[in-house]
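Exercise: predict the fold of this chain.
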Amino acid sequence: MEKLAGKYILLEALKAQGIKYIFGNPGTTETAIMDALEKYPEFEYVLTVQESAAMGMADAYARATKKPAFVNLHIETGLANGLSLLHNAHAGGTPLVLTAGNKDSREIAPGKTDLVEMVTPFTKWAVEVNHPDAVAQTIQKAFRVALSPPTGPTFVAFTTNALDDATNVYPTKTYNDEIIIKPDENLIKEAAKILSDSKNPGILIGDRLVQTNHPYIPTKLAEILGAKVYSSNYSEMIFPSGHPSYKGNIKLGFNSSDEFEEFDTILAIGGLPRISYMFSNPRMRIFNPKSKIIHIDNDPNQVATTEKTDVAIISDPSEALKILTTEVQSMIDGKTIELVKEKNKILKEEQKINKNNITSSLNENYSNVPMTADRMVHEVSKVLPKNAIIVNDAVTSGNSIFNFIDFNEPNSIFGGRGGSLGWGMGGALGIKLAFPDHPVIAFVGDGTGMMSVQALWTASVNKIPVTYIMCNNGAYRVLKLNMDIYKQQLGDTKSSKYMGMDFEESFNFSEISKGFNINSYKIDDPSQIQSVLKKCLNSDKPNLIDIQIDGSV
């Protein structure tokens, strides 16, 4: 076999993996890769001018396509800028392969940063390649590990000599089919017996449920049990939000966890993220110890590790739920069926009351200046196409999205995961690349938007027609809400000055986006929203609507 430089072997390996896009921001240590790309027109290099935009795009693209995305950043300096959203990818289980160039392996004495050490806390597997013979196999393993359950990011660094020196070790045909972990049938039967005997079961769903190509949404199971359903992180459509059984999203570890005190049995599906709670004196147990807990997840590090668990099922959640639903249905008797009918009737009545309360609140504050987040989303909802995809990086305005827009179809919503700000600006672009025939509308808070506003440049240059709706409340409002929680825990009744939480000069996203040649609009009158949004949706360019909303707490 003819010897090829490692840089060409890398690109041949990416071809074998079916990669189309390379998301990145290059530096001198990546020069070899950029040179090699000139001979590979089949790859589209999506240049970003800030690393968080590249990470956000890759994260969203990988989640939308259910395939690992490929990112290339620059040595320790560029890599450091991408760490916050690598944290999100790791927390959410996004399958992506992050890479960076590094100095020649011989530059030990002059100084060479350990890139692997930098990323190890946020990856499933991290390694540095310092010889071209190792390039093909390492890339093959990085993709396989990223896609293996539980999915997550991997990292590969390449020394410059590994890219420039030659090798005859070529990539081979790789096996990258989805791996499905089957459940233990005896544990399924045990779980089904507990659920069928339960007088008041509750269901908690995490977003790992939809990290497979064919997710099984447990709508039928909820209806069979007459169970209330909560989500622990609704970053994708994990249960129809318009279904009467769905009671909303909760932050585990906060007082919202009290919702589960009423249940004698809890079925937890997927991970149980507690990333939002960052105060002292956390709740060490989320659930009532008197409740029976059934936990299904494909991550052994999540199941039965923090909560009293009666049945622990290590399995692909969808695969387990299909079998569990059939088992439960076969066990429920006629008396229980009648009781469940009544429970489901009550759930429909409660849903109607909740909708009426939302409408009443909207009407009470309908003419407020600045407009409420509810009024903003209400106006948007009136002109949304049926096939629209919502990107939710709205932070505290996110509740309003769920108040007025139902998500009942797969891939109808994507949101940030992991807690770091800055995902949505790039994330919206990744979603649009994955679903080019769907309108993509991104609700982005002003604080998170400024973290990666440079994504507007990439949107403009590549003519990616997304519509950003900037929820501009002039503050880190989430920090104010958390400050109130903190003072409440201290028993401090004195009002906070919210230091470092207000933007004395509010961000003028309309003017910023004009500088990137993006169609932009600034709105403080809610009556303008529908007509402007229609115009944006009919455009083949990226658009931004800067909406001034109330940020009071």
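Check your answer against the key: The CA atoms of residues 265 and 392 lie 31 Å apart.
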